[in-house]
Amino acid sequence: MTMLTPSYDVIVIGAGPAGLTAATEIARAGLKALCLDKLAPGGEIINLGALHDFEEIFDGTTMAARLTDDAAVAGVEIGFGEVSAISGTGPFEIETTDGERHSARSLVVATGVNKGRLGIPGEEEYEGRGLSHCANCDGPLYAGQSVIVAGATGWAPYEAAVLVGIAGDITMLGTPTSPVPEGVTARPGRIVGLEGSNGLEAVTIENDGQRNRVSTNAVFVYEGRSPAAEFLPDSLARDATGHIVVDAQGQTAQPLVFAAGDVRSGSQEYLANAIADGQRVAKSVVAALNK
Q1: Half-sphere exposure of 254 toward its Cβ, with a 13 Å CA cutoff?
Q2: φ, ψ for residue 288, nearest 5 deg
Q3: DSSP for residue 264
Q4: Which of 17, 124, 255, 288 makes a 20 to 30 Å CA pair with 221?
Q5: Range list of H helices, the chain
Q6: CB neighbourhood size of 251 (10 A)
Q7: What pLDDT is attached to residue 15?
Q8: Regarding beta strands 170-173 and 147-150, do their DSSP bridges make them parallel or antiparallel, or are they unpaired?
Q9: Among candidates 274, 135, 155, which has minimal Cα distance to 222?
């Protein structure tokens, strides 16, 4: 039987903040790293407006460019492709939907989460007709109008802040765990109904068993976000929400397979946390491969 010769020391699946950071630190340690993403490097932060997590304030596009440049300078090979399958137990082989195959001694899964869902009947009918997942992209379509951000944790406050100064009345539904942006009203409850014949015109909000109809022109959905881990083998343990379970070093149930960022169990979906997670996992990978 011919043993697979790895093409890389590490393959990082996902080029968002956690993935790019992990790949950069791994490459800086002298290991050969490939960072794969099905879209453009930067992940979800490309669509974010002003970021306030750091000493200087800049937008998501600038942050994505910085992380990508750092990775390139460190020697990370950045590729494009959606991973469809993983095989092997070390070396590992991954296959993309385009039929490409790559192999590595270790893997880092940093695929983040899928777009949000309200989980109610008729939701698909309003996609692009009042339901959105990107305030920077679609916010200008609702200039001066009433909008709702469904969800109050993770990326939701960022998106609500983007809408300030664009939309008119902005409501964020849920229980915030961070300061509510100025100009945004937070209220408890969840959307259980959508209506409108010419695009979205109103929603039904339920809270403590009470339902109220609220007129609105758009809902930016940031709740019901599931981990983007459909391609991973069942041997990787998941928590009740489908996020990948890791130990204190970021390693999954499979030796030499690590997870970082929003896809892992316990993630708080904050940019600074994702970057710190990428750094932590990179140290663990380097230590494991240099034993």
Answers
A1: 23
A2: -65, -40
A3: B
A4: 17
A5: 17-28, 60-74, 135-138, 156-163, 271-289
A6: 18
A7: 93
A8: parallel
A9: 155
CA–CA separation, 154 vs 225, rounded Å?
Answer: 10
Q: Which residues contact 281 (CB under 8 A, 6 or more apart)?
A: 18, 22, 108, 249, 250, 258, 259, 260
107/266 Cα distance (integer angstroms): 20
Distances from the Cα of 162 to the Cαs of 19, 40, 49, 139, 220, in angstroms? 24, 21, 6, 8, 11
d(CA 35, CA 14): 7
For the stretch 77-104, pLDDT in tens is 999 989 998 988 878 999 999 889 999 9
Residue that the structure tokens 């069942």 belong to: 234
Contact 244, 279 (CB under 8 A): no
CA geometry: angle 270, 275, 279, nearest 5 deg = 145
d(CA 9, CA 80): 18
DSSP letter, residue 254: S
What letter would DSSP give residue 202?
E
CB 264 within 8 A of CB 244: yes
Please state whether beta strands 210-215 and 202-207 pair in parallel, antiparallel, or not at all (unpaired): antiparallel
Residue type, position 216, single letter: T
User: How far, in Å, are 38, 162, 217 from residue 35 at the CA level?
Assistant: 10, 29, 39
Indicate whether 273 pLDDT > 80: yes
DSSP run (H or E) holding 8? strand 8-13
pTM assigned to the model = 0.82
Q: Are 199 and 93 in contact (CB under 8 A)?
A: no
